[in-house]
Design brief:
The protein has about 120 residues and is mainly alpha-helical. It is built from four helices and no strands. The chain has one domain.
Length: about 120
């Protein structure tokens, strides 16, 4: 007559319940529209400008260690930093409604590729 659902169906139900409960707790904190919009903007800008890290790091390395290092080590640094900035931008773009990290803070410093190192939002500390 009645048979129990297969094991995979029960596991899928548990996974769905866990996902729904996790998203409910994220919304329980509430969204600050201004900070959420700032996170969305920051994510969009970092996604679009991540490639700027490549020439920036080549220039920085050339200035500090010479042209040969700039075009080898600087290129590698730029590709790495560019990937990280683009990934951080995508993360912030898709998670802008959620206050993670706390208070909608940036996941990467400096917040923008055009900000000076060791500053927050381009303002000296």
């Amino acid at each position: 007559m009645f048979s129990a659902p297969p094991i995979w169906a029960r596991r899928a139900l548990w996974v769905a319940l866990l996902c729904c409960s996790a998203s409910a707790s994220a919304f329980a904190e509430g969204m600050d529209a201004g900070k959420g919009f700032a996170k969305l903007t920051r994510g969009t800008i970092n996604t679009v400008t991540g490639w700027v890290e490549v020439p920036k790091r080549i220039h920085e390395t050339s200035q500090s260690s010479g042209n040969a290092a700039g075009f080898t080590w600087g290129l590698l640094r730029g590709l790495g930093y560019g990937f990280i900035r683009t990934a951080a931008g995508l993360y912030e773009f898709f998670t802008f409604p959620f206050p993670a990290p706390p208070n909608y803070e940036s996941v990467i410093q400096p917040e923008y590729v055009f900000s000076a190192e060791g500053t927050e939002s381009g303002t000296p500390q």
